[in-house]
Design a protein that fits this description.
alpha/beta; Rossmann fold; GMP Synthetase, Chain A, domain 3; nine-stranded mixed beta sheet; four-stranded parallel beta sheet; 28 strands; globular; menaquinone biosynthesis; ANL_N_sf; MenE; nucleotide-binding
């Protein structure tokens, strides 16, 4: 199979008046979206951009991002979303990596074509291509991974198509369902739900800063969250299947307190834990909460093997490579596998992810995976987030230090007593700090390392 039918055209032909995008003040049907996407393609074609051109967009309005990504998919351009939260030097680094041919942005960039778009424009008779080449590049997603250096991960239509198919086989979604776009559209997790909904003929809803309000305003049945978002929702009494249409909750982006996941089950939801990466176009493995404690079963169209404890991946969802200023870097080793940098093991048919190889450190001659300590801390009923980093030590080389967020005030003695039967002495943190608030939904380890190396920093409090 070298191409697939266009899912947008399929839905347009089968159910043109069915809702596709829910907004605070209006609902766009598949017909409405097709009309706008066709107009957007026409506007982009007026700039004489050849197929494969990289079009940048500073991610500020989610609806525009969805329309632009659909236009790029069907017009043959490459969608390059840039986070609006980047600092000036990060923004310049992103522009250098992406080597854009055009950009939709209020800021003029030298040597890059600026495009003005009429987002409200719509054609009366949409023209949507009937087929989409699987090899066509659709987007570049910026990810720093664990190195802190930006990488642009290439996604082809094959990657996005089979990623969505594999997810939908495990997490059922029907034309009557609606997935809330609750993750940023410049991240792979935020983009992936678009394709899951589109292939199923379902709808998506644009989220607001207050997720709890969205769940009552829209007919939400599916929700993607990182642990921080789940924690906030669980602190609202109305977050229950008795009050909401919501049924399926997909949690990813890092380890999550197992007690919080159980609370989802108690409130009538079906929760899933997921392990994935940008390089694998979102999910790799997923488990339903209550069925084991690992990262779950490998989804269809993915392949995985362990080599010296490292997770190696390949399959239809694996990216063609990294893009860097016009150069393409392959992800594959000589045998055709991608080395994820994650350590794992099998427990029966479930994958257990132990942590990043580059997070691992040696304490007194023993290997320590910070993620193992984080998971132990997250089993404490009051701990809602935990990050462990290494601190230099004259005697042991490195010792673990923990940053935690909790529902209530927890003392040092309480933490030590809780961890004693769960972790060997050399794995238990020697210091604890409150986890500071940071921009974005995922904590940056390097930021915490920098804070720890600045003794006069008043933004954190040590737990005594």
């Amino acid at each position: 199979m070298s191409s697939t039918p266009s899912p947008l055209l399929t839905q347009l032909q089968q159910r043109p008046n069915a809702p596709f995008i829910f907004l605070p003040t209006q609902v766009l049907s598949y017909q409405d979206v097709a009309n706008r996407v066709s107009s957007l393609i026409n506007q982009l074609e007026q700039h004489s951009l050849p197929q494969g051109s990289r079009i940048g967009w500073v991610s500020t309005t989610p609806l525009h991002g969805i329309l632009l990504q659909l236009a790029c998919l069907h017009g043959g351009w490459v969608y390059c979303a840039i986070s609006p939260h980047l600092r000036a030097e990060q923004y310049q680094s992103a522009l250098k990596t992406l080597a854009l041919d055009a950009i939709i942005s209020p800021t003029q960039i030298p040597h890059v074509t600026a495009i003005d778009i009429n987002w409200e424009s719509a054609t009366n008779q949409p023209s949507i291509p009937s087929s989409l080449p699987l090899a066509r590049w659709v987007d570049l997603v910026l990810t720093s991974g664990s190195s802190g250096q930006p990488k642009a991960v290439i996604h082809s239509w094959q990657n996005l198509y089979f990623s969505a198919l594999g997810s939908n086989q495990l997490i059922p979604i029907t034309p009557a369902d609606c997935w809330l776009a609750s993750l940023p559209l410049f991240h792979v997790g935020g983009q992936a739900l678009i394709w899951r909904a589109l292939l199923a003929g379902a709808s998506i809803a644009i989220s607001s800063p207050i997720l709890a309000n969205d769940l009552t305003q829209y007919p939400i049945s599916h929700l993607s969250l990182v642990p921080t978002q789940l924690y906030r929702l669980l602190n609202t009494r109305e977050f229950s299947h008795r009050h909401l249409r919501l049924r399926h909750i997909l949690v990813g982006g890092g380890p999550c307190n197992e007690q919080q996941l159980k609370r989802c089950d108690q409130r009538g939801f079906i929760a899933y834990m997921s392990y994935g990466s940008s390089e694998m176009s979102s999910q790799v493995s997923t488990r339903r909460v209550g069925e084991g404690r690992g990262a779950g079963q490998l989804l269809a169209y993915r392949q995985l093997r362990l080599q010296d404890g490292e997770i190696l991946l390949r399959g239809e969802t694996l990216s063609p490579g990294y893009f860097n200023a016009g150069r393409i870097q392959s992800l594959l080793d000589s045998d055709g596998w991608f080395h994820s940098g994650d350590c794992g093991q099998w427990q029966g048919e479930q994958l257990v992810v132990l942590g990043r190889r580059d997070h691992r450190f040696i304490c007194g001659g023993e290997n320590i995976h910070p993620e193992e300590i984080e998971m132990a801390l997250l089993n404490h009923p009051e701990v809602t987030a935990a990050i462990v980093i290494a601190q230099p030590d004259a005697e042991y080389g490195m010792r673990p230090v923990a940053f935690i967020q909790s529902n209530t005030t927890i003392g040092l003695t309480q933490l030590e007593v809780f961890l004693q039967p769960k972790l060997s002495a050399f794995k238990r943190p020697v210091r604890y700090f409150t986890l500071p608030q940071q921009a974005g939904l995922k904590v940056q380890r390097q930021t915490l390392i920098n804070i720890l190396n600045q003794p006069t920093d008043c933004s954190i409090a040590e737990i005594l």
